[in-house]
TrEMBL record:
Pfam families named in the record: HATPase_c (PF02518), HisKA (PF00512)
Name of the protein described by the UniProt record: Sensor-like histidine kinase SenX3
Compartments where located: Cell membrane
Domain of life of the organism encoding this protein: Bacteria
Listed EC numbers: 2.7.13.3
Organism listed in the record: Mycetocola reblochoni
GO biological process entries: cellular response to phosphate starvation
GO cellular component, one term: plasma membrane
The entry's keywords: Kinase, Phosphoprotein, Transferase, Two-component regulatory system
Length: 388
């Protein structure tokens, strides 16, 4: 065989080997792509955007139970750990949905926290996503259950508070008829009727005030409020009561201050603090009210020389219907709602209430509110003018 044929045969053999190698490479690449698709399955387009827009705790899992996507809320609720669902119950729910092909929703008490010794109520709904994946959406019901518990407690408490004066009014009304010919007894019963009627009216007024403060639109149209005027009116409302008990009610200090909010709401809050201070102070003592402004914060402090509040009760005094001294509160017509109204009024104005107290030495309640921006600017201008 001459050299020409040998060369052609070599070229043909080389072409065949090259073609085979190319086919092998292509086949290998396709197999690798299929393997990669199995290992890293493709989530349908738009799912990530939908999960982000939902703002809920959402998780997408594959047929092996691996977590492919988890929203920030799901991570915050500790539903995902090391690429898997944290709770076996959720794994079982995903398996059930995969087998049935139908969405399923259930309530769970899922453990959470570092040590897993507490639980959180959640409603979890699972549904198929495409043909291979399952999406789980969890709703944290802790706040809903807390609000329901508060509602039940409120109804129970208000029922108890109303039952006492209503029962007293009923009994006094029954006692009036047999005593029609005894003017002294009639006057005594009438006085007690007036007292119980006033108590019912106060409870009703406080409930209306508290409901108003808890409404979402209570400060939809805030206006600039002079704290000096609010405090002055609240002091005058309590002046007669203080004088009747021999208590010196004074405005100790009064810096000019303005806030944005509702004047009537703030007046009720300050009035409640002053009324409480008078009710829990011995005769011959002093109740002082002060207004201060520091670094954009307006403080309204009410200080008494009364019985004080024990440390274990200080965290509870702002609870509805809680009374440090129930006997004294009933004797003075207290409803147990006054400080709760103060707390909600401050919070609705972007502020807070602080308490200092020592048994036997008295208490100081301080409402702190953000200073109005226009007032803060005027104060700064006055300071600069003084410096100049």
């Amino acid at each position: 065989m001459d050299s020409g044929w040998i060369m052609l045969l070599a070229l043909a053999l080389g072409a065949a080997i090259g073609s085979g190698a190319t086919v092998l490479v292509v086949v290998a690449e396709r197999r690798a792509a299929r393997a990669a698709a199995v290992v890293t399955p493709h989530i349908p387009d738009g799912v990530d955007q939908v999960l982000d827009a939902m703002g809920s705790a959402a998780v997408v899992v594959d047929p092996s139970g691996n977590v492919l996507r988890a929203s920030d809320e799901a991570k915050a609720l500790e539903l995902v750990t090391d690429g898997r669902l944290t709770h076996r119950a959720l794994d079982d729910l995903a398996i059930e949905v995969r087998q049935s092909g139908e969405p399923v929703g259930r309530d769970y008490q899922l453990s959470w926290g570092r040590f897993g010794d507490t639980t959180r109520p959640m409603y979890v709904r699972a549904a198929p996503l495409g043909t291979r994946f399952i999406v789980l959406i969890a709703e944290d019901r802790s706040e809903a259950e807390r609000l329901e518990e508060v509602r039940r407690d409120f109804i129970a408490n208000i029922s108890h508070e109303l039952k006492t004066p209503i029962g007293a009014v009923s009994l006094l009304a029954e006692a009036l008829e047999p005593a029609a010919d005894e003017p002294d007894r009639v006057r005594r019963f009438a006085t007690r009727l007036s007292t119980e009627a006033a108590r019912l009216a106060q409870i009703t007024s406080d409930i209306i005030s508290l409901s108003r403060l808890q409404a979402s639109d209570v400060l939809n149209a805030p206006s600039e409020v002079s704290i000096n005027q609010v405090v002055s009116r609240a002091i005058e409302q309590n002046r007669v009561t203080a004088e009747g008990r021999g208590i010196d009610l004074v405005l100790a200090r009064a810096k000019h201050a303005k806030v944005m909010g509702d004047a009537q709401t703030l007046e009720v809050a300050v009035h409640n603090l002053i009324a409480n201070a008078i009710a829990y102070s011995p005769e011959g003592t002093r109740v002082g009210v002060g207004i201060d402004v520091d670094d954009g914060v307006v403080s309204i402090a009410v200080t008494d020389q009364g019985i004080g509040i024990a440390p274990e009760d200080q965290d509870r005094v702002f609870e509805r219907f809680f009374r440090v001294d129930p006997a004294r509160a009933r004797a003075t017509g207290g409803t147990g709602l006054g400080l709760s109204i103060v707390k909600h009024a401050a919070q609705n104005h972007g502020g807070q209430v602080r308490l200092w107290s020592q048994p036997g030495r008295g208490s100081t309640f301080t409402i702190q509110l953000p200073q109005a921006a226009t007032d803060a600017g005027s104060a700064a201008d006055r300071t600069n003018e003084g410096a100049t």
